[in-house]
What we know:
Strand order of the largest sheet: 2-3-1-4-5
Order of helices and strands: EHEHHEHEHHEH
Helix content: 55-70%
Radius of gyration: 16 Å
Distance between the termini: 13 Å
Shape: globular
Amino acid sequence: MNNIVLCGFMGCGKSTVGKNLSRKMGRKFLDMDTYIEQKAGMKVSEIFEKFGEDGFRDMEHNACKELSEMSELVIASGGGAFTFKRNSEVFKNKDIIVLLDVPLEVVKIRLKNDKSRPLLQKPNKDEIMKELYNKRLPLYRDAADIIIEGQNSPIKTAFSIIDEVNNFRRLNSMNR
């Protein structure tokens, strides 16, 4: 098992927890959206504008394939990455996928003033979030090897992930 890939709904703390986790584990941290932006030479919002969501999702899938070939990373996936089975399959049985499970009400508070997410730049933001959250959560759960409560502080959450990853590895090595 190579990388640790964090998945979950936007605002669940993938980037913040991921940075803490990478420091504690001595691994490099990579934010998938930032990786895509650097490769494309434009912001995610610009990619959506220029190529539409489908164009972005293709770039995201390519990023998944490239990142899965690297090792010893902590990767914060984009909020929509693991809603596509093709992305889950790239990482499955190779990397450890960790879902940061945070209740919708907490996410809403965290994203209250967020202006950076293209999918939330609409007047009925709360409705859209609820619909997306309910649609995506079962997909995240299907993709995840480990599910972590993501409501604690980022450092506490990082330590919980380390414990669970160690347990997961121990169980997998015994089952071989």
